[in-house]
Amino acid sequence: MTKIDYYSCEPFRAWNRLEPRPRKSEFDKVLEAGVHDALWMMTRQWQFGELQGEDTGSAIFAKIRMQTTAITRLKKGAGEVQNYSDTMPLEKGIESMGFQPDHKTRLEAAFMFLQLLDMTAKKLSVAGFVRSDYKSKLRALFPLTEPAKIDAADQPDIILSKAELLSHEAVVEVAATSARKYFDGFILFQNLVANQSGTIDKIVLTAPNHKAFVTSVSQQFIYWFNKNYGDKIGATNQSWIPQQLEYQFACSVPEKDQTNTVLSADEYYTGTLDWYAFDVNKNGTVNGLSGIATPAEMNNIKENLVTVIPTQARFAGAPNSRWWQFENGDIDLGNINAETTDIAKLIFTEYALLYNTDWFVVPYTVPVGTLSTIKGIVVKDVFGEQSFVQSAVQGETDDWSGWGMFNLSAKRPDGVRNLPVDTRLLIPPATVKTMESEPIEEVHFVRDEISNNVWAIEAKLADGLGGSIDGYNIARSFEELLELYDDAEVNDPEAQEAVFKYVLSNTVPENWIPFLPVHVKNNSRAIQLQRASMPRLFKKKFSPIRPRTQFLRQNLDASNVQIKPYYINEEEVPRAGIRLKSGFQRTRWYNGAVVDWYGYRKTVGRGEGSSGLAYDLVEPVVKA
After folding, report:
1. pLDDT computed for residue 401 by the predictor
2. Using alpha carbons only, what angle is made at residue 270 by residues 266 and 272, rounded to the nearest 5 degrees?
3. Whole-angstrom Cα distance, residue 550 to residue 441?
4. 241-264: burial string, b at 16+ Cβ within 10 Å, e else
5. How does pLDDT run across 575-598, given as a tens digit for each residue?
6. How would you classify the pairing of strands 279-281 and 301-308?
């Protein structure tokens, strides 16, 4: 009803609602939601259109025919094709990088060998076993070298080599102490693998009954080392593409026509392997992956027909589909304030209030590592009618209205990507959650528009003790150590009396490695980034400053000699820059096995930077 407020001349509106008003202590009649006029209720149903027959019975059964095909082959980068096995997650096979044994690893292996000697001796009641005697013998056979000290008479290159290690103060302290008390467990492992019988003969003391005992310990030690480090130390990774700073691999699945569909991941670097990392290779031939599937591979194609009961799709706060059912009052969809530009909010509100009862959920378990497609769904309603549900048009064209979730984009070798997508569902054999260590190494790539190049800043370096150390601190310690042995003094009297001096160029910290833009070979327009080096002046002699992180030491040997140039694609370093991190990953696979590996990650940087590098400077002479 509407009344007029005579004071403000504004209409006063009021609404009445039909609701039960209990007058008694018992609520039985109230909860029945009874009405006195059934004809009025039928009239209201007629007004709402509920009496119109639409033949829309509720779904009670659904028959689904599903086809799945499993991954059978794997190709890492430019490596050889291998048969795929799901005994480990795909990330481990793709991301595992070689890990060099540091000082901590050598000490840990030595400690474990001594512990195995102790435990086995007690278990077998070995007579005459003395731990300290074996420890002394092992120290003599496989000694740990103490860091060599710098002699003023050393050649400049020798001083630089020694100073690089001595600048790690924590490692030097641990190495000096452990060299007097322990032995090199990694060298022991290498000797046992190369010549187990001969190495055991050297280890065994005078007691003849100790040989069987040491042999048993050696076999346990080799098993322990291989389990913890065997697939890390010395391993080579064929998936990491240094020029792209990304992983690259491909796999294949067999099809009904005995061909193979190739799924390629050319730009994987996030550490989260899912369906969106893959593309379907259309009309392309990948050596070893394309071609005819073998009869054994064809057995991986499965077709299942299941009958299930569909349930209505629900979400938190969804309106109830029944009239006389209490709803959750925490969410009021009718009170949503949406502007005309709030497209997402309007679409969600329309779905929630009008179409939420049109969707059903059918449970179906899809095996890991498979590409699945629904061949057809038949739905039976309460009236006994059966309806064949066809797939939506999404994915069949490249039109914007064909968008769909979980679609696999298609590509061709010629680079054309506006192709109809593959609507099948890919469940990669990947982990859901991993435990990740703190970065062992970290490099920041930043663009420097002033000097017109890219800098790779070694922010974190491996400290040799299983952790990392700040790259700036190491560079500063290294420079301070060199100053103690640099005798490049100016003895010119006129130069000492000068007020100003000319400087050809200033310098940057030694953990800043330059990458210069150069033309791609046989191309006058394309640009790539070539690793360069800043000069280091020590004892009146110039030497190149080389990187220390594993990321940047491509094509460098152990003596810092460059075998060939190292290039990075120019588009891999955007204006925001990038960050490269390395660290250990640990997870538990579906079969209960604990899996760990050492891999790389790439994330977005923080923007451009400036090194402060300048040339042709005039500076005042600072006199002591």
Report:
1. 55
2. 100
3. 8
4. beebbbbbbbbbbbeeeeebbbbb
5. 999 999 999 999 999 888 888 888
6. unpaired
